[in-house]
Amino acid sequence: MPEQSGFQNLGVVLAQGNFPQRQKEKQASTRADRVAEYKCQTCHDLGWVGHDVELDHPDFGQLFRCECMKEADEAERRARFLRLCRLPQGTDNRTFESFKVRPGLNEAYRLAMDVAQGKLKWLTLMGDVDTGKSHLAISIARKWLENGRPARYVAVPKLLDELRRGYHPDADMSYDQEFYFYENVDLLVLDDLGMESSTPWAQEKLDMLVNSRYENAMPLVVTTNLGLHQISPRIASRLQRATFGRVVNIRASEFRIWSREEGRARSGRSGEENDAERSFGMSGRYRGDSNLDQASHGSSQGLPAQRA
Description:
The protein is an alpha/beta fold. The protein has helices at 10-16, 20-36, 70-85, 106-116, 133-146, 156-165, 175-184, 200-215, 233-241, 255-267, 271-278, 289-296; strands spanning 48-50, 63-65, 122-126, 152-155, 188-191, 220-224, 245-249. It has a domain at 94-249: Rossmann fold, CATH 3.40.50. Helix content is 45%, strand content 9%. It has a five-stranded parallel sheet, with helices on both faces. β5 (188-191), α8 (200-215) and β6 form a beta-alpha-beta unit. α4 (106-116) runs parallel beside α5 (133-146), α6 packs antiparallel against α7 (175-184) and α8 (200-215) runs parallel beside α9. Mean pLDDT is 78; it is low at 276-307.
């Protein structure tokens, strides 16, 4: 008798064991094995989930980030903020924890911590080179990043270069986009104010930028080797008049000098004693006044610098 259309030969079914119930069990077992392989049983490693809601609910058809991606998203967010901040190469060790609070730096350190904690919005650090200004400024930026807030560090000459580059048709960002970013980033750190080429265009842009952040009370940190009387009168006025900021004139010694003196103090020997000791030979005999005088004018090696 010919086989009817739509029906399988009973002998074939029995031989293959393709019973409908057994097929369902096999499929269910396969799905269970596949589900067991997922790291997240909620989203099945897709990273997104939908809510089982009614058709008229606002969340119907919407996708939401799964809880399993929270840590990964936060890590990516922090990495993105770090790239955006553009901290200088080789400054990973410049933090509040590594800063040496030596004489003359207590107030600057305390106020820098206030900015990092959001208690103070503006801080201007003035002082000679190698007194810790940039170290504190970078430490503030790092603390903001650690707290999950964006910050941008930039040396003033480089800032002006980036704005100029915005006029070029092939620039990644236009001048307007660059300037808008510097106006509105959560924290802006302007390092080495006064080191830029003093042109009317440069002065106008800096005046506009500082004034914009002043009018909107946007957090700003400025470091400079100059006195307020040596920078733009308009910028100096804003730095001094900001009721939400402070200006600190650092009078600490250079880090190299302080480190050398601190090392001598810890050893319990003065510089003269070290010079006299070097004037003796291996046999312990004194070499003479000429050698002592020569040694006393020799150069000494300092410790790694904590830059301005």
